[in-house]
Amino acid sequence: MNVQEEEVYCLMTGFMTVYLCFIENVLQQDFQHFIQLFSQHDSLLNLENQPFLWFYALHCSQDTMEILKQISVNIDQAFILKHIDSIFSKFYTLYFLEAAAQKHQKDHGQYYTPQSVIQFMWDKCASMPTLVQYLQRDQMPRVFDPCLGMGSFLCEFLTRFIKACRFSIVWNDPDRLKSLITQDIPNHVWGIELDPFAYQLCKINTMVQLFPLYERLKELGVKLEPASIQRLRLFCNDSLKMRVDTNPFWDTNTSQVDLFEQNCLDLLRDASQLKFDYIVTNPPYMIRKTGFITQPDPAIYDETKLGGRGSQAYLYFMWIALQRCDDQKGQVCLITPSQWTVLEFAQHL
Which residues are in the Type II methyltransferase M.TaqI-like domain (predicted)? Predict the structure, then answer.
């Protein structure tokens, strides 16, 4: 790690510390119990494969928390929880990445998507009546984001879905709400992000989105046991490969394999095995030969149709989205330049 990389890493760790302190302050006394509900793999208390959390774990003192509690007098918890991913996405992109890690941003094709654009895209796919109908049929739509970033698109979906719960009989059904938070949402919301830092922020954002369900269950007198929320299907990996060994945390010196991740990635690799109702995202934009884009796995991508090394990266994400969209009712909504419609690639769609 050179000096510049070390500076960026320290900034990332500091950003993560501020973020977690902020969330802990917003959730206040419920924070510790809430994070204990997640699986050992997802828990913020587990520092394994979470290189940006150690400073928070070691140095977030009671004195710091006391200062934050004094600030909390002027905090509207409901408003912040609703917009927390948008608040930190904008701060991360405009003031952190642009000021201190522009090369990191460029290499990964990371650009902030305005919340109004995200909402517009979801409005076109998942209206409130549609989501209420899913709940009335005792169903849960399957959602996938192959380039998560900080998770803004998934968080917007979860915000809408939980709002739909409030407008249905589900909101007064403790058994259904418990099933949603512990099983249905973890099993049906999928995503991949290559950048470890953005991935960690995404996972935290996703976890926070579930807090309203936790609060409602408390109101209904339901106490969830520690580790009762099943492992989230969010993976730090490369969507162009989707193998266990393309996880940035993969240890080549050990033969130990994360079987859960391996099984899920195997499903994602095979477009015939797993289909989604909604794939809504903003793919990275760069030419493969100039950016932080690896050689795609030929078992997943047909480069004779996609155009090879000179292709724009978003074409690969368009390919994976269209192949994994449910043939009958699935919807894909992507931000793309208009030029793809006149490229040779478009003839194969």
Answer: 187-344
Segment 313-325, tens digit of pLDDT: 778 888 899 999 9
pLDDT above 70 (res 94): no
Distant-in-sequence, close-in-space partners of 6: CB < 8 Å, separation ≥ 6? none
Contacts of 212 (CB under 8 A, 6+ apart): 81, 162
Cβ(89)–Cβ(98) below 8 Å:
no
Distances in whole angstroms, Cα of residue 27 to Cα of each of 41, 55, 78: 21, 20, 10
pLDDT tens string 2-56: 777 787 788 788 778 877 877 777 777 788 889 899 998 898 777 676 788 877 7
* C-alpha distances out from residue 171 to 132, 153, 165, 213, Å: 11, 23, 5, 9
In this predicted structure, the answer to whether residue 60 has a pLDDT above a threshold of 90 is no
The CA distance from 22 to 87, in Å, is: 11
To the nearest whole percent, how much of the chain has pLDDT over 70? 74
3-state secondary structure 276-296: ECEEEECCCCCECCCCCCCCC
The C-alpha atoms of residue 220 and residue 297 are separated, in whole angstroms, by 48
d(CA 70, CA 182): 33
State how far the Cα of 121 lies from the Cα of 1, in Å rounded to an integer: 39
Q: Are 88 and 19 in contact (CB under 8 A)?
A: yes
Cα 91 from Cα 98, distance rounded (Å): 10
**256's tokens:** 């130990």
User: Does residue 95 surpass a pLDDT of 70?
Assistant: no
Q: Is the dihedral of CA 123, 128, 133, 136 positive or negative?
A: positive
Mean pLDDT, rounded, for 284-303: 67
What is the torsion angle, in degrees rounded to the nearest 10, for the CA atoms of residue 58, residue 61, residue 67 and residue 73?
80
Alpha-helix residue ranges (DSSP H) falling in the chain: 3-27, 31-35, 54-59, 62-71, 77-91, 98-100, 102-108, 115-125, 128-136, 152-166, 174-179, 185-188, 196-209, 211-219, 259-269, 303-306, 313-323
**Rounded distance between C-alpha atoms, residue 333 and residue 315, angstroms:** 13
What integer pLDDT is reported at residue 290 of this predicted model? Answer: 45
